[in-house]
Specification:
With 226 residues, the protein is mostly helical. It has a domain of 119 residues. The chain has seven helices and six strands. It has a two-stranded antiparallel ribbon with strand order 1-2. Strand 3 and strand 4 form a beta hairpin. Helix 2 runs antiparallel to helix 3, helix 5 packs antiparallel against helix 6 and helix 6 packs across helix 7. The longest helix is centred in the middle third of the chain and has 21 residues.
Amino acid sequence: MEITPLYQKHITCGLCNQTFKTTKIRGRFVRAKEHSTDLMPIYENDSLNPNLYHVHVCPECGYSFTDDFAPYFPPGGKEEIEEKISKHWQHLDYSGERSIEDAIKAYKLAIYIAVMKREKSITLAGLYLRLSWLFRGRDAEQEQRFQRLAVEAYKSAYSKEDYKGSQITTERVLYLIAELSLRLGEDDDATRHFSKIIERQHSSTDRKMVHMAKERWQLYREERNA
């Protein structure tokens, strides 16, 4: 029997408790040939991009979420999502193969819900960043719009340290603030945050991010001086 890249996984909706199918890509078929300076993986096969399937969308009620979402809802949160999303939901099914357009719609829904649900800043930042990647090479204005939102969310996450206890390190958060600021032409912010990482180099456990920050900072200075 031939093993296909895509497979379906059963998942339970956090809002309506219905079980539905969501699509994933088998790890053996995911091949990143390189990464952009903002950590975006560039895959050998564009259609086998796990980023397209990062958001789960319940076909019954429209609740859109990722594995990073908290299982609980703030007071009134469920009711607000039901009123603003589920009440108008047309039973759309995102369980098959997704186009970039499908993925963009899924991310926008997840972001809208994450804001209503008051998810952590680090969760929102990740959604904004991944959505900016989907716009790369397609719509520069939208890419920048979501990069800007990502920077603000990463800054909020850094100040609240709401990524503590996750696999995301302080150096990674600082690096993304610096790199995205650089891409948005906010050089002072970029300088400040790259410096913060380099200051941490002797105490850091995330050597990879420190190394990347030093390389990126060096490249930026060379480009500026040229």
